[in-house]
Structures are given as C-alpha cells and as structure tokens.
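Archive maintenance. Older records in this collection stored only the sequence; we are now back-filling the structure field for every entry so that each record is complete. The fields below show one back-filled record exactly as it appears after the update. Entries are processed alphabetically, and Methionine aminotransferase is next in the queue.

ARCHIVE ENTRY
Title: Methionine aminotransferase
Organism field: Croceitalea vernalis
Length field: 379
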Amino acid sequence: MMDSKLPNVGTTIFTTIGKLAHKHNAVNLSQGFPNFGADAALLDLAQQAISSGHNQYAPMQGIYSLREVIADKIESLYGRYYHPENEITITASATQGIFTAISAFIKPNDEVVVFKPAYDCYEPAIELCGGIVVPIQLEGANFKIQWDVFKSTISHKTKMVIINTPHNPTGTILSKEDMTQLQLILEGTDIIVVSDEVYEHLVFDGNQHESVAKYKDLATRSIICASFGKTFHVTGWKMGYCAAPKELMAEFQKVHQYVVFCVNHPMQRAVAEYLRTPENYLGLNQFYQQKRDYFLSAIEDSRFIKTPSAGTYFQVLDYSKITVENDVAYAERLIREYKIASIPISVFNLNKQDNQQLRFCFAKTEETLDKAAEILNTL
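Back-filled structure field:
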C-alpha cells in the first residue's frame, strides 16, 4: 500500500458543502466567488488579446507590461517600488503563488507559523515540504493576534510566518498596530513572511489595507501574494501575482518555472490594459461594502449575532442564540432542511475549535441575497 504524503488531508469542506448544496438545490453562500459577471470592458480586452494572436507562451515571469503596471499600482498605494524586471512574477492564482513561495524556502523540519483559522491551502504545502506547522489560534469574536503568544512561539527553528489580511475566513483586517508589532518581533531575524493579500482592495468603513509593502523591514523579508480573479470577479481565470525583493524572487522563480512555467497569455494582456484605469480596482471597496450592508440589513431581524465584516466578501455570523449544535452539523442541516449553504468556521480553527460560527459569502446578486435573507430570518 502506497504511503500518502498528506495522510490527514481528505475532501475539503468547500467540496463537501458544494456537493450537498447542489444536491439540495440550496441558495449557495458558501464558496467564495461572485455569481455575477465581470466588467464587459475586461472581457472585451481578453477577446481582443485572443483575436490579436497572443495565444502562445508568455514569458516565465509574466509579460513585462503587466508587471510594470503592477509595480506602479503597488508604489501608488503603498509607497514601495518593486522592479518589474526581477521583483514581480505573474502566477496561476494566488494559491499557486503561496505554494511556490513555501516550496522555495521550506526544508524538512523548518517551522512555519500559521494563524488559525487559516485558509486551507497553507498547511498542506508546508507538510509536503517536510515543514512543521506551528499554529496560533486567533482570539475572541474579533479574531485578534495575541502578540505575546506569537513572540514566545518564535525560535531558531522558525523559518516563515504566513499572514492574511483582509482575512479569509473571518473578514477581519490587520491594523497598523498589528503590522508594527509583527515588524518589531521579526526585526533582526531571517524569518520570511508570506503575506496573503488576495482581498487587498476589499477593505471597508474607511479603513486602509495594511500591506507589508508599507513597512520597510517587513518588505525586505516578505513575499506578497495577490489575486486578479478575486479582484475582478473572474476567479476561473486563476491568475494573480507575487511581489518580493529580488533575492527572494530569484528563489521563488526557480520553483515557479517548474510548477507552471508561465500563465495564461491573453488574460495577462487584458488585465495589463484594464489596470491602467485605477478606478477599476479603487472602487471595489465601496462596491462590496454596499453588498455587505445590503446583506446585513436584510438579516437585521434574524437571531444571528453580527459583527460587520471589515474586509473580504465574507460575513461571519454567530448562531449561538439559535441552536447548540456544532457548526458542521448545523451547516449541513441548514442545507438539507432550509436550502441555504454556508461554511462552518471550526474546520479552519486549531483543534477544530467550535465557536458556533458560519461564514457567508455576500459576493452575490441582490436577488440571491434576498433569497438567503428570507431563509435566515426564519431560523
């Protein structure tokens, strides 16, 4: 019998819930993708790129014009310049970027700090490389990092820390104070930071996204992973990018070239042109905040406890006033009996800690959100 390299990894919660939702024809607010179309202008640019013959391999790092406009965007937003020649790589999704970053640096027995609840692609990648996951549970209803706990966890074995802001699955964000604490604790070490910033343009209520690019010492040790699929409602394009100092990026690209070599060429052309209009991403905060507010207003009379999402397009709801069931069982029952799908948070927590919370995706049409609210208000 062949030994598995990932013996503890089974079917993901997204697949399990997705199949159940499909079977019961449930209103699906579980998986994180919009059920509305992308901007017609972006789709037209993609078609133009295909029709113009940009259908062969792109350069390994990505087309230069796209890397150039990304460099301009990062500098404009966060005040740090990444050279398009050797500090930016276009990836086949942020997930591939994260996997590649981990693969490039983690060796057997290297420790990697992961804050829980955590997006489920981090830990399998660490384990495949022989690394050791060092989990730290985020605390309280607002999922705060306890920096004294983090500091006590760091040792000579720590090779990497993975952070995620805005945070999936909780919808929280790291503050300026959080990033300053992280920088102070890591100062003087060789620890690498992988910064998952997929939802960088989805921050609400006048807050700012605190990218590692804004912090001098953090930037020198960090690999930023970002997503065009999440940003522009085209998750099926599976395209993102990574930015890092050239010494880190050189190691990243050694792995990247053998994972995918290069990324979808015509889509790169389309995104490069689309990014030249900053309003195409700067307006997303307001766009998704309106959807968050619409959803929360629609379920105002429900029995769920609600702390408005600070970022992403996910809303966590506490159902402790409704039932004492564990969250996986309740999520499955909601699908079978009430025809609405969500994601239980415990599957992402340390030791599957159950705080009676479900994650709902509000990147949906108002019609879908209305249907969902009608159900949730009856519980």
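Update note: The first strand starts at residue 27 and ends at 28. The chain has two domains: 13-31+283-376, 53-280.
Entry marked complete.
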